[in-house]
Amino acid sequence: MDLSPPLAAVAGTAPAGYRPNVWATKDAWDGHRALISHLYADRSLPEVMCIMEAKHGFKATKKMYKSRFKQWGLDIKNNKEPEMRVGVCKVLQRSSQGKLSQLCIRGKCVRWEDVLHYWERKGMSIGDVSAQGTSAATHEAVQCLTPILSPVATPEILATTEQIFSTIHDYCRGSFEAGTWVRTDPKFDCDTTKGLEDGLFQLNTFYELFVTAYQLFALDSCEEAGKTLIAATATAGIKMILSSEHPYILKTLLDLVLCSDRHGRREVAVIVLKQFSALGELVLGESHPLRRICGWLAATDPSQILEVVFRSLRTLETRLGNILGPMHRSTLRLHCDYIRFGGYADDIDHEWVELNDLLSKCISAFGPCDGRTLRVYLELAIYFCVKSKYIEAERAAQTIMKLAASAQPVSSSTHFWVEGLYQLAVSQHGLRDETAAEAKLRLAIDLSISQFGGQDARARNWLVELERWLRVRGQLLAANEVQARREGMIQPADLI
């Protein structure tokens, strides 16, 4: 099977808006200034060039980009290391005195998260930088000003935003150094040495219950949706998750905020963050970084929380990538989340380009049947469905099912085959092949329950989706039967 280029058998055509490469004109630079500036804030120059050329047909050399960046004042990534070091020390010193800071280097304002990313690329934490001290010769180029406070945001909220990213760095490093998290073979998820053997399953179930609840709200089954949310946020269940200290707890909570916002239920995620913070104090201790991060996120200004969550996800991915390697399964999971939610957060449709690039790397490094490669194929199928590109989604799902038969590790085989089957059902439903879609969704539900049992929250979520399909088509008797089957399964409260 020819998988090079990887999307040749999946996407078929370039995304909408693609045009042949031409050398960038002055008007093109002006027209793309906001987009390029946004991309360059979180990416390297080669990455920006790749996205702009592949997605927008915008062709320019590195020299052209650097010249334009100089005109625009985007020279933050060229800051000299001594100046960045002084900036860190000044901000931390003022923070210890309870003062807020706006860092300026050579007259230009610098975001704290950009400082964190600068040192992260050098493999150093903020604590390491501070411990090494600074040279007095560079102090004049660096200023820390007191920011003008918004009448809406409180000083506490402004102070904690920059602390979140730094604490995520320390949380990851400290968890591995303390032996709470353990490095695994790159084919497998990193794991915890504490808590339950099925900690990841419990965490996934927790997340799926929210998805189920949001599906039930869409069905106007508000009472059942409410009960599902109550079960998902039960004290015993959250304590169990916190006790496991699984590396994916923070990732799951960040995903939950973004998922809840998509369903118009952002306030639910904030309540959950507050619960994790309060119970984290009992289970993990007041000073535990996870408890503090949850509390800070819950207190973030509602107008800023999506941006903060999105950058927290990127920070978590970067830190794990430095510790485990960029192609470790855990790092790739986070990178896929960043790509998926990134296009949603900044409203720039570049997921196609980034997923294509990531898929190429996985196929080259691991081959098409590796679980990490299949994870990216699955993200492609989801992406195509979200964008209503159902023909491409169908091809991607069929590719997943074909490759899953030989998946490595073997434990990935059934999982990805069932996930591929579900995405195939969704894509065929989008193509109005409703009979085929229903049959495949029913099969996916049966296989998922046979694999994980009657407590499988994912299968219950799929039953809600199947019920919705049937009610929309007016097949009320069949829909009632599906509802009865769902209600006959083990209820969420029984999982706690």
UniProtKB/TrEMBL annotation:
InterPro entries, alphabetized: Clr5_dom
Domain Clr5 span(s) in chain numbering: 26-75
Domain of life the protein comes from: Eukaryota
UniProt protein name: Clr5 domain-containing protein
Organism listed in the record: Alectoria fallacina
